[in-house]
Write a structure and sequence with these properties.
Layout lengths: L6 H31 L2 E4 L5 E5 L5 E6 L8 H33 L9 H15 L1
Antiparallel strand pairs: 1-2, 2-3
Helix pairs in contact: 1-2
Length: 130
């Protein structure tokens, strides 16, 4: 005959679930802050252009070396486009690493308490009363 869990076991399990949930929320908040604070960086092959993108993909910095004015407008446009995209790609890769780490850290959460858990405990209490 299976042993009946005690109310203390239920309280301990609930405390464990709450603690793990709190840790998960803290980890997700850390991940959000990490994404907010990251900086994706890129530079043109000739070093004349540099760009920085934040975790949301916004370009927050764009630097042109004065020598860039020697380029034709088509060449300059192409380089700017490539550097901006590379900075955004770098930011996206960094953000993905942060998200993957956060998800891995939350993978071992216990199964949520469901209606079967509650029903089993109510039935157990009813049996104990009879």
């Amino acid at each position: 005959m299976p042993t009946t869990p005690s109310p203390d076991d239920d309280v301990e399990r609930l405390e464990q679930v709450l603690l793990q949930g709190r840790r998960m929320m803290e980890r997700l908040q850390e991940a959000r802050a990490g994404i907010r604070d990251l900086a994706g960086r890129a530079e043109s092959a000739d070093g004349l252009l540099r760009a920085v993108s934040n975790g949301q993909g916004d370009i927050v910095e764009l630097h042109f070396d004065p020598r860039v004015m020697r380029l034709g407008h088509e060449a300059l446009g192409g380089q700017v486009t490539r550097v901006l995209q590379a900075a955004q790609d770098d930011a996206a890769e960094q953000a993905q690493v942060i998200v993957d780490d956060a998800l891995a850290a939350t993978a071992d959460l216990p199964e949520p308490l469901d209606e079967h858990f509650i029903r089993d405990r109510v039935d157990q209490v009813a049996r104990n009363l009879l």
